[in-house]
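Milestone M4 deliverable, item 7.
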Amino acid sequence: MKDWIAGARPRTLPAALVPVLVGTAAAAGMNGDTNVLKGLIIWRFVAALVVSLALQIGVNYANDYSDGIRGTDADRVGPMRLTGSGRKKAGAVKRAAFASFGVAAVAGLALAATTSFWLIAVGAVAIAAAWFYTGGPRPYGYAGLGEVFVFVFFGIVATTGSAFVQIERVTPLTFLVSIPVGLFATALLVVNNLRDIPGDTESGKRTLAVRLGDKWTRVLYIVLIVLPFITVPFLCGLSQRPAGALSMFAILLARKPVQRIIEGARGPALIPVLGATGKIQLAFGVLISGGLFYGG
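Output delivered:
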């Protein structure tokens, strides 16, 4: 069980939790309700959270399986991989990935049945994108498109989707708040791929980090960390929910990881940066969610 938990990559789970929190909070009060929960439907929030977490865990296992059978995890620097390390058989990891996708599908179907069946199409595309990130004959993650997938699905789709299942529409606010969420999720992938540049280059993985090179990948990471905080005043001002500006306090957590990136941390020294990035994203998400909810 310890191996399976490690294989689920807990440090990446804020990327699944934050969009559901933010999207749900942005939807607060939009149905005109002023009760304690401001019109939010709790079971739909829980179901959306299950969908997001299950997809994140599923893509982590799928990535582990696909990289493992290709041999691209043989000399990796980061945390242990189940398939590449030989701790678990490739078939078992593949089944774990599809079991996770199945959990996401069941929870998604429940949401679709009570809101819009268009969510089934969105869910199917999300699962396909999760698998073909590193799976299939031509994985797009190996072509430098992984960051696009993360920004779209763990930013825009997850955030606006979490709001949609509450209010059954997409509003300018629910779309705009998805942007900083997606930027932080992308930063997680960028620092992960920065760490893996040497191994990915040797194994033929043309990730965006490999294409950009070490220097410009570091610049990209810093931009992705800074941009969300620049968007906050605009989001809170335009939405008339100024309490969301509390999220600016999360920038206090950014100094150390950004400093390590600037100083040129490499290999294992980047593992704490990955964890710190997840903490920034989580702190930002919790603070802006609280502000959006109480301002709704």
